[in-house]
């Protein structure tokens, strides 16, 4: 009889733990929100890569191209951030 009560108590604890995890999860985001976040992450990685290249670049034309790319990425990041719900 004691064994039956123990297994019931364990099952209740597992269920409570599962319920707590479900209630503490972040709400599901829409597909658009996820795509926007993925795009933002990609742009931020590209920006950091361009900044690293810019630090090493010595030729003026190469630096100019990197700066143009950096400005374009920063503009797109700003646009994505302003769309934030």
Written account of the structure:
- The protein is mainly alpha-helical and 85 residues long.
- It is built from 3 helices and no strands.
- Helix 2 packs antiparallel against helix 3 (60-82).
- The protein is elongated.
- The protein starts with a helix and ends with a helix.
- The mean pLDDT is 84.
Q: Hey, roughly how much beta strand do the residues contain?
A: under 5%
Care to count the β-strands? 0
Level of helix content? Answer: over 70%
Gyration radius, to the nearest Å? 25 Å
Uncertain residue segments: none
Provide the succession of SSEs: HHH
Total helix count? 3
Shape: elongated
| Terminal residue distance | 56 Å
Structural class: mainly alpha
Largest sheet: none
What is the overall pLDDT average?
84
Question: What's the layout of helices and strands?
Answer:
Elements lengths: L1 H23 L6 H26 L3 H23 L3
Short description:
This protein has 85 residues and is an all-alpha fold. Helix content is 85%, strand content 0%.
């Amino acid at each position: 009889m004691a064994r039956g009560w123990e297994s019931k108590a364990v099952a209740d604890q597992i269920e409570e733990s599962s319920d707590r995890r479900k209630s503490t999860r972040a709400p599901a985001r829409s597909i658009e929100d996820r795509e926007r976040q993925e795009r933002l992450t990609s742009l931020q990685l590209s920006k950091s890569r361009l900044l690293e290249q810019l630090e090493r670049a010595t030729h003026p034309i190469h630096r100019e191209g990197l700066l143009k790319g950096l400005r374009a990425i920063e503009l797109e990041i700003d646009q994505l951030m302003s769309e934030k719900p």
